[in-house]
Amino acid sequence: MPLLDLNKLSNGLSKTWTGYLRDWDRTLRSASHPETTRYNYLLAAAQLARYLAEYSPDPDADDPCEVTRAHIEFFQAWMIETRSGATALNKHKGLQQFFKWLMLDAEDIDRSPMERVKQPKPQKKLIAIIRDDDTKKVLGTCKGKDFVQLRDEAIIRLYYNTGARLSEVGNLSLEDLNQDTDSAHYHGKGNKDRRVRYGPKTARAISRYLRARAKHKGAELPSLWLADRGGRPLRPNGIKIMIKRRGLSAGLTGVHAHRWRHNFAHEWKRAGGDTGDLMLLLGWTSEDMPRHYGESAAAERAQETQLRMGIGEHV
User: Fold this and answer.
1) CA pair distance 4, 194, nearest whole angstrom
2) Tens digits of per-residue pLDDT, 157-210?
3) Fewer CB atoms inside 10 Å of the end CB: C or N, the chain?
């Protein structure tokens, strides 16, 4: 099942909002924005439209061209109260892109209502990671020789071993794997490709899966990951659901692919790895990301140093 279903996303919205979202999505697709980016952008605009329809007494709220700075600020405050500052910031960035498109591409507004709306300041939290012991529990649910067990172990090990994004592993094709060099060719955000090596355990899990895949219905398909039935590809959204289910089976909540990305960056920084190399491996172009991810590793290093020094324990 694809992540982005525009009909579902715009269900219940006015014809005006629905039409604009459809036009904007066409522009995003033509600019080669990945599906996850398009989904997050369109979701922000759709959520604004729903908020205005439910809470705004303004009859013009069913037309995005009539949205004002006050509308945006009310919506942003509501997002902070009902979700979080981080979620509100995510919506803010999506709406910036929407009204920029409405002004510059569609040419239906003269000024963006986002022009003087301040970005929300999310509370700074240490990045949540998934420890090796918990990953071992999740992998423990994949023990066996059935097609699904072999497939799921290979998928989870690839996330764990390379720190890739959900879509990067989920959209791999057979041609993206090189078993001679034990590496995967990831197609990252903004059409930024990179090749990443993986270790012996991951290589072994992938080889076992590929042998099972060759006998499975749909083996002729170019997609690396196949659904357990129906001879069709397993999409990133299906992988997302699978990982959550595996986590719950292991007695864990909040398990998702991005937590292994957090773990990769955390362990890399904790071991004193080079920031530039980490950026290359994880497909980052801004140093803000490794700095953000590195804070949890710095806190852990400080705690380890504190224990080693034994301050206050010598009397």
Assistant:
1) 25
2) 999 999 999 999 999 999 999 999 999 999 987 778 999 999 999 999 999 999
3) C
Cα distance between residue 164 and residue 183, in whole Å: 12
- Token reading at 103: 């002004």
Q: Which residue is it, tokens 């329809």?
A: 53
Side-chain half-sphere exposure of 168, counting CA atoms within 13 A: 27
- Fold for 6-104, please state it: DNA polymerase; domain 1 (1.10.150)
Q: How confident is the model at residue 84 (pLDDT cuts 50, 70, 90)?
A: confident
Number of C-beta neighbours around residue 280 at 10 A: 12
Residue type (1 letter), 28: L
As beta bridge partners, residue 187 has 193
Structure tokens at 3: 């992540």
CA end-to-end span of the chain: 63
